[in-house]
Amino acid sequence: MEILYPDTVEGVMDALAAARLSRTPIHPVSTDRNWGYRSEHTTQGLVLNLSRLNRIRNAQEISARQPVAVIEPGVTQGQLADFLAQHHPGLTFNITGSARETSILGNALDRGVGYRGPKREDLFGLEVITGSGERIFTGFRRLGSESPIAHAHRYGLGPELDGLFFQGNFGIVVSACLRLLPRPPCERAVSLSLRRPQDLGDLLDALIAVRRDGLVSSVTHVGNRARTHSSLARGLHQALMKEGLESHEAQKDAASILQTRFRSSWSALLSISGHERDTRARIKEIRARTAPWADVQVVSPGLLDAADRMLALWPGRAPRKLMQLRALLAAIKPLNGLALGKPTDEPVRNLLWMAGQHGYPVEEFGQSDVGILYISPALPLEGRLVQDFVTRWSGIVQAHGLEFYVTLNIESENSMVAIMNLLFKKSQIKDAIRARRCAEELYADIRRLGLEVYRARDDMMNLVTDPDDPYWKTVEQLKQVFDPDKIISPGRYNLA
Ligand SMILES: Cc1cc2nc3c(=O)[nH]c(=O)nc-3n(C[C@H](O)[C@H](O)[C@H](O)COP(=O)(O)OP(=O)(O)OC[C@H]3O[C@@H](n4cnc5c(N)ncnc54)[C@H](O)[C@@H]3O)c2cc1C
Questions:
Q1: Residues 72-116: tens digit of each pLDDT
Q2: Contact residues of ligand 1, CB 6 A cut-off
Q3: Residue pLDDT, tens place only, 162-195
Q4: Rg (CA), the chain
Q5: SS3 of residue 127 by DSSP
Q6: I need a labelling partner for 492 at 20 to 30 A (CA). Which of 24, 313, 329, 432 fits?
C-alpha cells in the first residue's frame, strides 16, 4: 500500500484533492502506531501519514495562564513532554501507556484513554480538512488565531461539530487545541494488592466510591496477575543483569521476586495529587476504605530516588537480597512514572522482550513478531457484575489455550473499561488464527451481554455497525455531507 507523508496543511489538501480525482480511498493516520487496534494495511488505497506535521504551533504563547497547546498530528507524547519539561516544568498533560513516539492527536481521535482519563476530553478547536476538501475550524478557532478566545473557549457557539471527527471518517484533522494541566505540588502513586480473589467486586466498589467522592482524579488501573507480571518481568531481569547476574540467574531471581512480592491476583495503581496535607489525608481515607480487602503501598518519586541512592552506597558486589531490592525499584520506577505523567517506552519493550525480540526498535513495534489484539468493552461501575464478566472472559480465553491479560480502568465517575489483550507470535500462523478466533468469541459474548467495545479494531468494523439501526443510518447520511465521494477511510464503518 502506498504511503504519503505530507509536511504542510496544503500538502494534505493536495493529496486529498488528487485522491478525490482518481477516486482512491485515503486513510489518514497521525503516527500510525495504533498497535492492538490496527491490523496491517490490507485495504485498498493510500495511507496519509501525518507524522511530518509535527509543530507545536503556539509554542511561544504557552504559559501557566494559557495552558493550551495547539498541536499537529505528528506531535508525539515524548516531544510534548520534553518541550514542557524544558520550557514549562509546571505544566503536564494526560499521557497514555503507549510509546513516547505515539501521536497525542492520533490517540485522542481514536478516543484513547490516558492516565488522567479519556483523551477525548483534552481536545477542542479542531482544524479539519473534510472529505469534500473544505478547511474548517471548530469552536471559536473559527474566529482566527488573533481572537483572544480562539484557544480558550472549548465549545464555541452552535452545534458542536468536534465529536464527528473522533472515531469518525468525515475529515482529516490537521491541528487541535490540547488542554495542558498544572503539575500539582505533590503527587503520589498508590498501589493496592487484593488479598482474596473472590473480593475483587468489593474492592472495585470501594475504588469506584473513592473516585466518585473525588479522592482520586486519575484513572484507577486494576490489573490481573498476568498483566502485572508481564509489566515487571523484563525490568527485573534487566536490572538483575546490571547487578552482575547471568541471564539464567536473573530470570530465576525475577520469577522469585514476582512470586513472592506480586502474589496478589489483582493489583491496582492510581495517583493522588494536590497539596501535601490534602494528599496525605486522601491516602489515609483510601487506606481505611480499602483495608478490608487490600494492602496499600504509597510510592513517591522522591522516596524511590532516596532508596536508590541509599542502596547504591553498598561497597562492592551487593548481597543477593539487596540486588533484588534494587532491581525491584528499577523495575517499578518507570511504571510509577506513568501514573505521574512521564511517558515511557517500557510497556512496549516488555512485549518485545516477552516475544524474544529484546532490542527491536520500539517505534517499529508494528513490524515486529509481536501480535496483539485489544478487546476493550465499556462497563458499568458495578463491582460484582464486572467480576462476573471478567470470570466469564477469562474462561473463554483459557479455553483457547491463551493467557488472559486484563486491566480494569475506572476512567471517570460514570464508566469503566476493561482492556483485554491477546498476545501471539505473528510468525506462528496457528497461534495467530487462534487469537483471532478467541477475539471474535469474546466480542460475540460482549454483545450477548448487551455491552459494546468503546473502541473497535479495524478488523471488527463490519461487526460494529448495523445498517438497519437509525443511528448508523444517520452516520451514513453525515458521511454523504462531509465526504460525498467516500474517499476517507471508507471501510472504517462498513456501511452500504
Ligand atoms: C504496550 C501498549 C500500551 C498502550 N497503551 C495505551 C494506552 O494507555 N491508552 C490508549 O489509548 N492506547 C494505548 N495503546 C494503543 C496505541 O498504541 C495508542 O493508542 C497509540 O497512541 C495510537 O497510535 P497513534 O497515536 O500513532 O495513532 P494513529 O495510528 O495515528 O491513529 C489512530 C486512528 O485515529 C484516526 N486518526 C489518526 N490521526 C488522524 C487524523 N489526523 N485525522 C483523522 N483521523 C485520524 C485513524 O483512524 C487512525 O487509524 C497501547 C498499545 C500498546 C502496544
A1: 999 999 999 999 999 999 999 999 999 999 999 999 999 999 999
A2: 28-36, 38, 50, 73, 96-98, 102-103, 105-107, 109-110, 112-113, 172-173, 347-348, 351, 372, 489
A3: 999 999 999 999 999 999 999 999 888 899 999 9
A4: 23
A5: strand
A6: 432
Distance, first Cα to last Cα, the chain: 24
Residue 245 CA, ligand 1 centroid: distance in Å: 37
Checking if the pLDDT of 484 tops 90, the result is: yes
Contact 58/69 with Cβ under 8 angstroms? yes
pLDDT in tens, 38-54: 876 556 789 999 999 99
Ligand 1 centroid vs 349 CA: distance in angstroms? 17
Q: Which residue has the cell 438497519?
A: 468
* Domain range annotation of the chain: 2-182, 186-365, 369-452
Read off the pLDDT of residues 453-466 as tens digits, 9 standing for 90 and up.
999 998 998 889 88
To the nearest 10°, report the CA torsion of 125, 130, 134, 138. -10
Identify the H or E element spanning 128: strand 123-130
Cβ atoms 6, 15 nearer than 8 A: yes
- Which atom from ligand 1 is nearest to the alpha carbon of 76? 25
Long-range contacts, stretch 340-344, CB < 8 angstroms, 24+ apart: 340/187, 340/189, 340/271, 340/301, 341/81, 341/92, 341/93, 341/95, 341/115, 341/116, 341/183, 341/187, 342/81, 342/95, 343/77, 343/78, 343/81, 343/95, 343/96, 343/99, 343/100, 344/100
Would you say 423 and 403 are in contact if contact means Cβ atoms under 8 Å apart?
A: yes
Fold of the 2-182 domain:
3.30.465
| Angle, CA of 222, 352 and 78, to the nearest 5° | 70
Q: Please, what's the largest Cα pairwise distance for the chain?
A: 73
The dotted CATH code for 369-452 is 3.30.300.100
Q: Quick one: DSSP state of residue 453?
A: B
Question: How many Cβ atoms are within 10 Å of 496's Cβ, its own excluded?
Answer: 7
Fill in the DSSP letter of residue 267. Answer: E
Torsions phi, psi for 42 (to 5 deg): -110, -15
Query: Quick one: angle between helices 429-448 and 383-399, nearest 10?
Result: 150
Q: Which atom of ligand 1 is nearest to the CA of 30?
A: 30
Decide: pTM greater than 0.85.
Answer: yes
Q: Which residues of 332-370 are buried (b: 16+ CB within 10 A; e: fewer)?
A: bbbbbbbbbbbbbbbbbbbbbbebebeebebbebeebeb
Distance (Å) from CA 489 to ligand 1 centroid: 15
DSSP 3-state of 157: coil
